[in-house]
Amino acid sequence: MQRSLPTGWSRRRLMTALALAPVATAGLRLPADAAGPPAAQISAETARKRLIAGNARFVAGKSLRIDHGERREAVAPRQMPFAIILGCSDSRAPPEVLFDQGLGDLFTVRVAGNIADDVALGSMEYAVEHFATPLIVVLGHERCGAVSATLETIAAGATPPPHIASLVDAIRPAVEATKGMNGNALDNAIAAHVRQTVDKLKGSGPVLAEAVAKGQLTILGAEYHLGTGRVGFMT
Ligand SMILES: [Zn+2]
Predict the structure, then answer these.
(1) Separation of 199 CA from ligand 1 center, angstroms?
(2) What is the pLDDT of residue 193?
(3) In sequence order, which residues have a C-beta less than 8 Å from that of residue 186 and are 6 or more positions away?
(4) Residue 128: its pLDDT value, please?
(5) What is the pLDDT of residues 206-233, one digit of tens each?
(6) What is the whole-number distance in angstroms between the Cα of residue 3 and the centre of ligand 1?
(7) How far is 22 from 11, CA to CA, in rounded Å?
(8) Ligand 1 centroid from CA 172, angstroms
(9) Dist CA 108 CA 63 (whole Å)
(10) Share of the chain above pLDDT 70, in %
(11) What CATH number does domain 37-64+79-233 carry, 3.30.70.20, 3.40.1050.10, 3.30.460.30, 3.40.50.1980?
């Protein structure tokens, strides 16, 4: 997009000024709950409330019409995401859409079954160390195909192809922990997998575990409901 610059402003000077400005407030036309100070200056609770407010807008069909052009320019010099989302690759569960956030808001790690393998952990550690992001959300979702496939594979005693086997192995503990429980086996396994992943992240040293111990990082589980659009945070 083209925008005219103030008299005497070079593009370089404008970008320098934007780099020094709080990124989250650089996005224009956002309501109070969608804009604020950069990640390092907000609490995990404020970040959680910002996600909840965005999801409420999405559920109500009142998502913001974020001007991605303006936001793109504002965050181009640097990013300061206020939340890290470890979510599933499922095409129906994109965090930026269901939390109604724009460019630069969410540091997103997506892999089938929202699995915290070494690469995912390294990605999240990078964000915690470089952006002081105060909140990680492990986001599972209803009818997750990766968890469903794990249930079926274990029930059949089948041997999946090697790379898919890595997904099954990562989700297997949740299936085993919920075996025989009342209720829907898939729902139970999805919730257990989120909780187990939250615990794994909390104990992942040194970066995440130390940040949690210092009170600089909160890690929460949540589940996205495909039909209603609602994200429920676990307590
Ligand atoms: Zn999934």
Answers:
(1) 19
(2) 98
(3) 143, 144, 147, 148, 151
(4) 96
(5) 999 999 999 999 999 999 999 999 999 9
(6) 41
(7) 18
(8) 14
(9) 19
(10) 83
(11) 3.40.1050.10
For residue 89, how far is its CA from the centre of ligand 1 (angstroms)?
6
190 alpha carbon to ligand 1 midpoint, in Å? Answer: 9
Ligand 1 centroid–CA 216 distance in Å is: 29
Q: Tell how far the Cα of 147 is from the centroid of ligand 1, in angstroms.
A: 7
Residue 41 pLDDT: 79
- C-alpha span between 104 and 84 (Å, rounded): 11
Look at residue 68 in the predicted model and tell me its pLDDT. 87
- Rounded to the nearest whole angstrom, what is the distance from the C-alpha of residue 34 to the centroid of ligand 1? 27
- pLDDT attached to residue 40: 62
Side by side, which strands form the sheet with 106-110? 106-110, 83-87, 135-141, 218-224, 231-233
Dist. CA 63 → ligand 1 center (Å): 23
This prediction's pTM: 0.84
pLDDT in tens, 128-172: 999 999 999 999 999 999 999 999 999 999 999 889 999 999 999
Domain residue spans of the chain: 37-64+79-233
